[in-house]
Specification:
Growth Hormone, Chain: A; 426 residues; 2 domains; disordered N terminus; single chain; mainly alpha
């Protein structure tokens, strides 16, 4: 206990949280902000072609995640330890990310970039399955919500720190450090080495200090066979896990709405409010800070009220603030309204991780996280498709963005039918 009577986190719990700080460099620097823009603008023949190719790589990676996550999860549940799986996947992600350095600003590098990006993204996404499944074993029930929220908050800030280092230490540095050649786009390409090093360096504490399940002495091939059979049996006996299935159905809608909001928020800001690229980057930084603070703060509320209630509160906040966000006309009012909206983004994601950890049977926890990844991937097209249809049908970005609120509302209603696991856990 500290001086205020609050239990101190163990070294293993702190190390688990720090993995969020480590792996966030990949989605922030590679997927969202820097390398994706470099690929579409400098590597591909034109921005339209580059966007399409990038989308295809994400789709192939998503398919691989959907197929492999449940199977790998089932096998891991039979063998026991999760850290060996997470170590291999982290190494693959960091190595493939580093190899993106060889993507020169020329169409001849397209295949190289797409192959290693898809490989890195697949390893990253499957790795989050094992990482999330460790939560219930690392943290006691009394502070599982705080640990998830603090980890998610650290992830937001870790990604921003790596992004700031990439922008100011490499891309905008004049002259570029280490003799990097601007003509060959080396300062931009070097962000791949930075992200890989960041991930590899800061994930080490988890493997050193976070406890893991003991080995069950099952041989690898036996684990694959029994894991596949167990996965098939779980799907066949899905009614036995009614609450987890209800949650999966609810999160399909509200997380699809949330992910669509992330994907098209910048497009909405640029198209409706005329924001420039530098303004959108500043908007992204501000929103990430607000979302990280929200994840930190709501971690306490998660342990107090239970994760189901926190997710419901977060979804309700997103809907209630999202309505005026679709009605404001000026850039100033957009900034005023969107900042409190971001506070609820982090809690919705962090508490979802806690909720599944509480709902899933301990012996099937990794498998359940894999099945959630599968269900999310299969239906991830719904939000963007609905937004695109409404935008074209009503010739309005506001109408398209309004579909996000519909997805959030459907997820909210479906989540009401899920039993609250917080009371039982306490």
């Amino acid at each position: 206990m500290d001086g205020r009577g609050i239990p101190r986190l163990s070294r293993g719990e702190k190390a688990w949280c720090f993995y969020d700080w480590a792996n966030s460099a990949f989605p922030t620097v590679i997927v969202t902000f820097v390398f994706s823009a470099y690929f579409t603008q400098a590597v591909a023949a034109d921005a339209t072609t580059g966007t399409a190719l990038w989308g295809h790589a994400l789709a192939v990676s998503g398919l691989a995640v959907a197929v492999l996550s449940p199977l790998f999860g089932a096998v891991a549940d039979r063998t026991g330890p999760r850290k060996p799986w997470l170590a291999v996947l982290s190494a693959i992600c960091a190595s493939a990310t580093a190899l993106l350095w060889f993507t020169t600003p020329d169409p001849s590098s397209i295949l190289w970039a797409l192959v290693f990006f898809a490989l890195a993204n697949t390893a990253f996404e499957i790795g989050t399955v094992f990482y999330g499944a460790m939560l219930a074993d690392v943290a006691p029930a009394s502070r599982m919500g705080r640990l998830s929220g603090w980890g998610w908050g650290l992830g937001y800030f870790g990604g921003l720190c790596c992004l700031a280092l990439a922008l100011f230490g490499l891309i905008q540095a004049d002259p570029p450090p280490f003799g990097l050649d601007k003509e060959a786009a080396e300062p931009v390409r070097a962000v791949t080495l930075l992200a890989a090093l960041w991930f590899a360096l800061f994930c080490v504490p988890l493997f050193l200090y976070t406890p893991d399940r003991p080995s069950r002495g099952v041989r690898p091939m036996t684990a694959v066979v029994t894991g596949f059979r167990a996965l098939v049996e779980t799907v066949r006996q899905v009614r036995r896990y009614r609450e987890a299935v209800r949650y999966m159905l609810a999160q399909v809608f509200y997380l699809d709405g949330l992910n669509t909001m992330f994907a098209f928020g910048g497009v909405y800001a640029a198209g409706t409010f005329g924001m420039k690229v530098d303004e959108i980057i500043m908007l992204g930084i501000a929103l990430n800070v607000a979302a990280g603070l929200g994840a930190f703060a709501f971690g306490w509320i998660d342990d107090w009220l239970g994760p189901r209630r926190v997710v419901l509160i977060a979804i309700a906040g997103l809907i209630l603030i999202g309505i005026p966000l679709l009605l404001v006309e000026t850039k100033l009012w957009f900034w005023i309204v969107v900042m409190p909206l971001a506070i609820f983004m982090g809690p919705a994601q962090a508490a979802s991780r806690t909720l599944l950890s509480r709902l899933a049977p301990p012996e099937l926890r990794t498998e359940m996280f894999g099945l959630v990844a599968l269900s999310g991937r299969i239906t991830s097209f719904m939000g963007p498709a609905a937004l695109a249809w409404a935008t074209l049908a009503f010739e309005s970005q506001r109408a398209g963005m309004a579909t996000i609120l519909v997805f959030l509302a459907v997820g909210f209603v479906l989540l009401l039918a899920v039993r609250d696991p917080g009371k039982a856990a306490r």
